[in-house]
Amino acid sequence: MNSHWLAPDMTMSAADYLALLDAALAFKQRYPAQTGAALQGKTIYFLFYNASLRTRSSFQTGLARMGGNAIVLDPHHAIYTPALPEAEIPYTTERIADVARVLSSYGDAIAIRMYGEPAGWVYGAAHRHLEAFARSSRVPVINMECDRFHPCQALADMMTLRERLGDLAGRRLCISWAYSGSWHKPVAVPQSLLLAAAKAGMDITLAHPASFGLDPEVMDRARQVAGQTGARVRVTHDFLDGVNGAQAVYAKSWCCLAHLPTRHGDPVDERAMQRAFERHRDWRVDADVMRLSGTDAGYLHCLPADRGQEVTDEVIDGASSWVFQQAANRLHAQNAVMARLLNPGCLA
């Protein structure tokens, strides 16, 4: 068993991932009446470099109702900001290795959410911070979203798809880019979902404008997994082609990797980024798009959604929306992750 939860979408086998999915769905049925002592006396330290509603509240609620303790540390103000050696500032930062050693001597896990501005928008830099924590920590490190992966969201997404569609093998999923007035969303959600859906053998169409491609390493891994599970991974740059005939449409915005800096301290090419976005304002899910998908198709989004830009109110508040079931499943997915890492016997 991997002692950390950093990039399970990349590293876990399909069999192990699907077993965890089954366990999460079963654990949900027993929560909270039969899981009240599952994490009795366990302490997790939470570091949020970015704003959070669902991740923070669902982790803390689940941990508390399973008997554990959440300690939230503000990495910007309440503690010395954890930093890699090259980014240290005297009496302002503290080396990640030192922070990890100290916290792992006190508690049972460290959970971190970091992407975007706190890592200078250098793609992969936030994930390297999490890896640095993991190298020096004696307890599990949990990725609550970085700039490459959002494994907690992906597990909740897969739970929702299973509850709605049953056996996922061969089911048609469209993962699509969508327009937003802000470019600041990372690629973590579509990348983790693509990998997780491939493990489940789904028929996946990835739809995005040509300039919004995902990480080539992630794409290669998704195709490798698909070859093992019978999944299908197709890429299109035509929005309507992507959603046509899908049984589930997961449409959200993400940034253009090509316009991010490659070195810490360099700026984002915001003008080029904004131009790339504005050329595709028509990539929006409305009622006509959902009808093209199919009468029983569901709409998914990780939230927060940019209403009127990524999706219309009619869709996200309508009968085809699975969005709030997804949000509820964040609690249950993360409960399963915490249990797997800290008390795996209670998942059986």
TrEMBL record:
Give the UniProt keywords, A-Z. Transferase
The Aspartate/ornithine carbamoyltransferase Asp/Orn-binding domain sits at 189-340
Q: Which InterPro entries match?
A: Asp/Orn_carbamoyltranf_P-bd (IPR006132), Asp/Orn_carbamoylTrfase (IPR006130), Asp/Orn_carbamoylTrfase_sf (IPR036901), Asp_carbamoyltransf_Asp/Orn-bd (IPR006131)
Q: Please give one Pfam family short name.
A: OTCace
Which Gene Ontology BP annotations are present?
A: citrulline biosynthetic process; L-arginine biosynthetic process via ornithine
Alphabetical list of Gene3D superfamilies matching this protein: Aspartate/ornithine carbamoyltransferase
Q: Which GO terms describe its molecular function?
A: amino acid binding; ornithine carbamoyltransferase activity
Query: Keyword Transferase, does the record have it?
Result: yes
* Limits of the Aspartate/ornithine carbamoyltransferase carbamoyl-P binding domain: 11-163
Query: What is the role of this chain?
Result: Reversibly catalyzes the transfer of the carbamoyl group from carbamoyl phosphate (CP) to the N(epsilon) atom of ornithine (ORN) to produce L-citrulline.
Among PANTHER family, the record links this protein to: ORNITHINE CARBAMOYLTRANSFERASE, MITOCHONDRIAL, ORNITHINE TRANSCARBAMYLASE, MITOCHONDRIAL
Family from the record:
Belongs to the aspartate/ornithine carbamoyltransferase superfamily.
Q: What is this protein's record name?
A: Aspartate/ornithine carbamoyltransferase, Asp/Orn-binding region
**What species was this sequence derived from?**
Pandoraea nosoerga
